[in-house]
């Protein structure tokens, strides 16, 4: 895989001009998107990568904490992955794979048979909840469950 420098349109390994097929699917090349000042010096580029990695780690960690707690956990995790993808090829590849899978799932969900099945399951679930709620109200009224013992 050829890694392309997007700012100068050159391949970073060979120094030659980049071609249209250098990028992966979607036409966007993989590799670092660090600013020019950070790419000039290898040491500064490593520091830049470390800062991007730590920032992405903090965002992903916050997203993992939000999974069981209130908050958009998966959205924050993917934002952290997007931050990593600005600098690391592995994160770019993971995001591309994720986008493909989400697009595939959305396409499958739009299939009329799948939509019909999902609507039937949802309607059945809502009916069961309504019947259970009606039974509870008929049996106990609007009494809180922790006060049933006094009845």
Q: What can be said about this structure in brief?
A:
Helices cover 61% and strands 3% of the residues. It has 151 residues and is mainly alpha-helical. Helix 2 packs antiparallel against helix 3 (73-85).
Commentary on this structure:
The protein is an all-alpha fold and 151 residues long. The chain folds into 2 domains: 32-110, no CATH class; 111-151. The protein is 61% helix and 3% strand. The chain is built from 5 helices and 2 strands. The chain has helices at residues 36-39, 42-66, 73-85, 89-109, 112-140, and strands at residues 4-5, 10-11. Strand 1 (4-5) and strand 2 form a beta hairpin. The longest helix is centred in the C-terminal third of the chain and has 29 residues, at 112-140. It starts with a strand and ends in an 11-residue tail after the last helix.
Secondary structure elements and pairings:
Elements: E1 4-5, E2 10-11, H1 36-39, H2 42-66, H3 73-85, H4 89-109, H5 112-140
Antiparallel strand pairs: 1-2
Round the Cα radius of gyration to an integer and report it. Answer: 26 Å
Going across the biggest sheet, name each strand in turn.
1-2
Domain count: the total is 2
Structural class: mainly alpha
Binned, the helix content reads 55-70%
Low-confidence stretches: 14-25
Beta-strand percent range = under 5%
Total DSSP helices: 5
SSE order in H/E notation? EEHHHHH
Largest sheet: 2 strands, antiparallel
Shape type: elongated
Count every beta strand, where a strand is a DSSP E run of 2 or more residues: 2
End-to-end C-alpha gap: 73 Å
Average of per-residue pLDDT values: 79
């Amino acid at each position: 895989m050829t890694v392309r420098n997007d700012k100068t349109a050159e391949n970073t390994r060979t120094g030659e001009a980049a071609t249209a097929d250098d990028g992966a699917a979607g036409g966007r090349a993989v590799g670092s998107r660090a600013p020019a000042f950070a790419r000039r010096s290898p040491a500064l580029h490593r520091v830049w990568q470390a800062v991007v990695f730590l920032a992405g780690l903090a965002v992903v960690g916050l997203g993992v904490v939000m999974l069981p707690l209130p908050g958009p956990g998966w959205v924050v995790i993917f934002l952290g992955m997007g931050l990593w993808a600005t600098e690391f090829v592995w994160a770019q590849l993971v995001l591309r794979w994720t986008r493909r899978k989400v697009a595939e799932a959305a396409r499958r969900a739009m299939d009329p048979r799948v939509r019909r099945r999902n609507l039937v399951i949802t309607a059945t679930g809502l009916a069961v909840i309504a019947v259970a709620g009606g039974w509870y109200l008929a049996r106990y009224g609007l009494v809180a469950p922790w006060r049933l013992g006094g009845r």
